[in-house]
Design goal:
The chain is an alpha/beta fold. Helices cover 46% and strands 15% of the residues. The radius of gyration is 22 Å and the shape is globular.
C-alpha cells in the first residue's frame, strides 16, 4: 500500500523508526506496529514463508504502518511475488554490484523500468487494475549493502533508476571486515561504512537505512544521516523481557519465607 505521510516524512528529512519482525505472527504487527513508523518483515532470516509474510503485510495495513519485506535472496521470483503482496517496499539482501542491483530493479519494477509481471491479485483487488500506473513509484526498492565490494559500488548502485534506498547490513559487513559477532557496533567498527553509504544516498537523493538499536548506535545513525532506522524487534523484545521476568520471579522465590507448611502439600515419595 502507499503511505504518502511516510514518504512525506522521508522527503522532509524526518527520522522514521522501524521494528523488525522475524516470527510468523500477524499479532506482533498489530500489537507492536502501533508504536513504530514502519515494519521490517524479515523473510530472509526470519521463520516465515509466503502466507506468513502476506498475513504480516495485511496486519501492518490494519494498523496503518508501511511494511518492508526482506526477501530470502536477490532472485526474480521471490522479489516479484513479494511485490504483489503490496508492501511499501522490498529489501533485497547482499547487493554488491551494479549488475545485481539492476537484477533487483527488473524483478521489483513493472515495465518499462523493470520486467515484473503485471496482475498481482492483491494490487488489483485493492487498487484496481490501474495500479500499474503508479506501482513503480509506490513500491520502494531497498538494496542491502553488506560486503566491502558493495561499499565500493555504493555510489553506482544508488545512482540506478529504480533503486530507492541503501540499507547497510551491520552484521554481514562486520563479518567481512574480520570482526566477530561479539565485537561492539560503534564508530570504530561501522563508522566509515556508514558514512560511505550515506554519502552515496545524499548524492543521488536516496534513502539511507540502518539498524540503530540502543542509544550509542541510534545516535551514530542520526549523526551520519540515516532516515529509516531499525530501533528494535520481536526477538530482542521477547528475549530481554522473558529473561528479566524470570530473573525477577526467581529472586522473589528465593527471598520468600513461608509462614508454615503449605496447605495440601503432600509427597508421593
Amino acid at each position: 500500500m502507499n503511505y504518502p505521510e511516510f514518504r512525506k516524512a522521508l522527503t522532509q528529512g524526518k527520522t522514521q523508526m522501524g521494528f523488525c519482525i522475524m516470527y510468523p505472527a500477524a499479532g506482533i504487527a498489530e500489537r507492536c506496529g502501533q508504536d513504530w513508523d514502519w515494519l521490517w518483515l524479515d523473510g530472509q532470516h526470519g521463520q516465515m514463508g509466503y502466507q506468513d509474510l502476506l498475513g504480516l503485510v495485511r496486519a501492518a495495513d490494519v494498523v496503518r504502518k508501511p511494511s518492508f519485506v526482506r526477501v530470502p535472496w536477490n532472485e526474480f521470483g521471490a522479489i516479484a511475488q513479494a511485490a504483489d503482496m503490496l508492501p511499501q517496499g522490498i529489501i533485497v539482501p547482499c547487493v554488491s554490484t551494479v549488475a545485481e542491483a539492476q537484477a533487483a530493479v527488473r524483478a521489483a519494477k513493472l515495465p518499462p523500468l523493470g520486467n515484473r509481471s503485471y496482475g498481482g491479485r492483491r494490487p488489483c483487488d485493492l487498487l484496481t487494475r490501474l495500479y500499474s500506473n503508479t506501482a513503480n513509484e509506490d513500491l520502494m526498492l531497498i538494496c542491502q549493502i553488506e560486503t566491502p565490494e558493495a561499499i565500493e559500488n555504493a555510489e553506482a548502485i544508488a545512482a540506478l533508476p529504480g533503486v530507492d534506498g541503501l540499507f547497510l547490513g551491520p552484521d554481514d559487513i562486520m563479518l567481512r571486515r574480520g570482526y566477530t559477532m561479539d565485537a561492539p557496533k560503534n564508530q570504530e567498527s561501522l563508522g566509515k561504512d556508514m558514512e560511505a553509504v550515506m554519502a552515496a544516498c545524499r548524492k543521488h537523493g536516496k534513502v539511507g537505512v540502518m539498524v540503530g538499536v540502543g542509544t550509542e548506535m541510534l545516535t551514530l545513525c542520526l549523526k551520519t544521516g540515516f532516515q529509516m532506522i531499525v530501533g528494535g524487534g520481536d526477538v530482542s523484545c521477547m528475549g530481554s523481557t522473558s529473561a528479566q521476568w524470570s530473573k525477577d520471579a526467581r529472586a522473589t522465590i528465593a527471598g520468600f519465607k513461608p509462614s508454615g507448611k503449605p496447605a495440601g502439600a503432600t509427597s508421593p515419595y
